[in-house]
Design a protein that fits this description.
148 residues; five-stranded parallel beta sheet; 6 helices; 5 strands; binds D-ribose
Amino acid sequence: MKIAIGCDHGGFVLKDSVIDYLKKQGLEVVDCGTYSNDSVDYPIFGEKVARLVAKGACDKGIVMCGTGIGISIAANKVRGIRCALCHDEYTAKMTAMHNNSNILAMGGRVVNPEMAVKIVKTWLDTPFEGGRHINRVNMFTDIENREE
Ligand code: RB5
């Protein structure tokens, strides 16, 4: 599985731990930056990850900013993206089960690196439940198709 990773300076604190974890699981990582604590604009990195996932170049994505909010909004602007902002293992599990989220967002000023790794593990290890959730997830696409 290939995972795209992106963050701004606020999410940078989580990046190394998340990448280390993914590599230890034998997953391929595409690092879209940023590469330092210098201030950058989070929409750039949210879009880079989202485009890779939307076109199928990566299977899933992980995005991080200070709160996780801005970069998740940016990722969700790309058609086909279901980016879920998670703060704990419960939200990570539920979004994998019910929303079939294809990008995970976290905040570097909200969770510490240890919690971020637990969230990533839970999100990746939890399968989509399907069933009644399939129609609901398809309704996201319906919304995109109704765009004026
Ligand atoms: C950057 O200071 C901060 O605004 C950003 O990382 C993120 O929290 C935005 O939602």
